[in-house]
User: What shape does this take?
Amino acid sequence: MSNYPTIEQIRAASRKIEPLIHKTAVLTCKSIDQICQARLFFKCENFQKVGAFKARGAVNALFSLQEKELNQGVATHSSGNHAAAVAYAAGCRNTKAYVVMPDNASPIKIAAVREYGAEIIYCKPTQQAREAALGEVVERTGAVFIHPYNDYRVITGQATAALELLEQVSALDAIIAPVGGGGLLSGTALTVSALNPKIVVYGAEPAGADDAFRSMQAGQIIPIEKPDTIADGLRTSLGELTFPIIRKHVSAIITVTDDAIINAMRLVWERMKIIIEPSSAVALAVLLEERASIKGKSIGLIISGGNVNLDNLPWQR
Amino acid sequence: MSNYPTIEQIRAASRKIEPLIHKTAVLTCKSIDQICQARLFFKCENFQKVGAFKARGAVNALFSLQEKELNQGVATHSSGNHAAAVAYAAGCRNTKAYVVMPDNASPIKIAAVREYGAEIIYCKPTQQAREAALGEVVERTGAVFIHPYNDYRVITGQATAALELLEQVSALDAIIAPVGGGGLLSGTALTVSALNPKIVVYGAEPAGADDAFRSMQAGQIIPIEKPDTIADGLRTSLGELTFPIIRKHVSAIITVTDDAIINAMRLVWERMKIIIEPSSAVALAVLLEERASIKGKSIGLIISGGNVNLDNLPWQR
Assistant: This one.
């Protein structure tokens, strides 16, 4: 018996977070369909609160805690979207957020976290320094740690994106979600396997951070040592809670190069006129590179976020 | 008695073009609302076919012509969205398009026009050279000239964007549309004055191409001599057909600097995660600069297009 989040819990999470998150649009694009020779449905979490699906998990986690557990606030470490999501959710829940960020984090992301009212604690840009700083904060403040993905409340929140997608689009053959720590992919897989196990779920991963691919091959978590990819949201490694779900319910992890990711990102900007971040382009890159046999199929792609440094675009480097 | 397009003609155009254009989404953004202290509704013609509202006018014009009139094809001159729109509409109508483009037009726009199947005739980048080249093409081929704005069929097509917006959002206090040649603004004004004359219509114009502002002041068309603005879709001057409609039905033309346009454009990219071109940002710039008294009001903004050179963004110059 697993204690994986159930579809009832995912539905309850969806109702719980509904007032505080967007039910994001599903967009289509004829010209990209023609290029891929498939029907693509883009679930646009770039339009989500804080510009990424992470708002779902953070809001669900914070609203799953009792008020008294929140007296000392919440804490997390992240250089990216989870930081802003926890800051946003803490504001909604009237509690304080402490966010450990590397001192080389982008000024734009720092500003976003501060704008949501969080207290930022800077550390050196290493995993060790982050964890040490977080430990100190938790000890000093008594804040509750909200892990970016290795937390069932977070996974359940992320699972609500696929729940909406299945309500919005019928008759999908497959869904592709990007995979970093695996919160979004494991949540997606839980929803899909419960509601329609005929839909194939794929994880899309940068070749330069292919720990999920390797872990699936090996049957155990093989963390990435030195991730090297433009997809800054996908540099983390699978966690103990996400890996077993992915192993059970995801058909395959498919990797693509950074060049393919950048091409896919630019194609979406040009043809769909929406801003997606590199991590969001990995799923489309899988299709453009014909890394999955999808001709004539209906495919859902989860566009994970849209937070990009507009002063330094990948194709200008 | 004017022979301006009537609301019945606008409704008929909307039905006629419906299979070939998108009913575009209306988006909202809480954080921009907070900045402007108003409720803004963005009518997203950047998601339109060819990436701009111009598809509406071109499709309506071509489908208003008899088949025999189209035997020799259609022709236009344009360095931008109207070129692609005519090329697209000609493809839909199974006729040939000849497009005169300046030889310094952006390679991306040239590629788009070619992709839609048009024949491109290059000319020197002056208004005179354009008109001479167009004259030659029309004489040589017998193609019908489709003017970018000084044509009631085109104006009627552009008017359908506001028709949709009024169906999609109730209780607007005002609508702001950008003004270049005036096709979109005059069409918007016709729709709004017929359906709900209480809604105030404003034209938003770059200070560096303020012929509409001057023309309204003078009571007669004062063409711009040397337009100087980043808003490349708004460098043209009002025409004999668009000016009288604007004079009658538009409350005011409001001008903004290029700096304000660039700031507004970037704000939309950052907060809304959608790609809009400089011409589309002029309406929001009016609000951000507090050039109109709008606090607490509900305002519709027509986002005219999303065709941008992604290799050279305005804030990177």
User: Anything to note?
Assistant: Residues 21 and 49 of chain B are 6 Å apart (CA to CA).
